[in-house]
Design a protein that fits this description.
The protein has 5 helices and 5 strands. The protein has 143 residues and is α/β, with parallel strands linked by helices. The mean pLDDT is 91. Helices cover 54% and strands 17% of the residues.
Length: 143
C-alpha cells in the first residue's frame, strides 16, 4: 500500500513539528501548516489522504476549516485533535464529516491507528470510484 499523504494543521509550532517528525519516522509523507487558511491553500496545491486538524486555532478554527476542506474535497479524511476538553466541538466536527477525533496529548500508537483507518477508508472509496469510472467508460464505448 502506498504511503499516505498527511497534512498536519496546528497553530502550536512545537506540537506540529514534533508530530511531523514522529510521523515521518514512521515513513509517512508529511507536510505541516500553522492555520486553517494555510491548510486551505495547501490542499489546492497538493492532494492529501488524511488531515490532522486542531480544533482550537485563532482565525479560522478547526470546525470551519473542516467545513471548507469538505467543500473543496469531500473525500479527504480528517482527524480532529483538541487540547481542550471540548467533546461538543469534536462531535460537531464528526457531524460535518470528520473521520474521528482524539484528545491532545494522545499516544502516537492511537493516532497511527486512526491515520491507518482513515487512509484505508479513503483508499477503498477511491478504488471503488475508479472502478465505477472504468465501467462507465467501457459501457459508453461504441460497439
Amino acid at each position: 500500500m502506498p504511503t499516505p499523504r498527511i497534512l498536519i494543521v496546528d497553530d502550536e509550532e512545537r506540537f506540529r513539528t514534533t508530530l511531523g517528525k514522529l510521523l515521518t519516522e514512521r515513513e509517512m509523507d508529511v507536510v505541516t501548516v500553522g492555520s486553517g487558511m494555510e491548510a486551505l491553500e495547501e490542499v489546492k496545491l497538493r492532494l492529501y489522504d488524511v488531515i490532522i486538524l486542531d480544533i482550537k486555532m485563532p482565525g479560522l478554527d478547526g470546525i470551519e476549516t473542516l467545513k471548507e476542506l469538505k467543500k473543496f474535497d469531500p473525500g479527504i479524511e480528517v482527524i480532529l485533535l483538541t487540547g481542550h476538553a471540548s467533546v461538543d466541538s469534536s462531535i460537531a466536527g464528526m457531524r460535518v464529516g470528520a473521520y474521528d477525533y482524539l484528545m491532545k496529548p494522545c499516544a502516537i500508537e492511537d493516532l497511527m491507528e486512526k491515520i491507518n483507518g482513515a487512509y484505508e477508508l479513503k483508499a477503498s472509496r477511491d478504488e471503488r470510484l475508479r472502478q465505477a469510472e472504468i465501467r462507465r467508460l467501457v459501457d459508453r464505448k461504441p460497439s
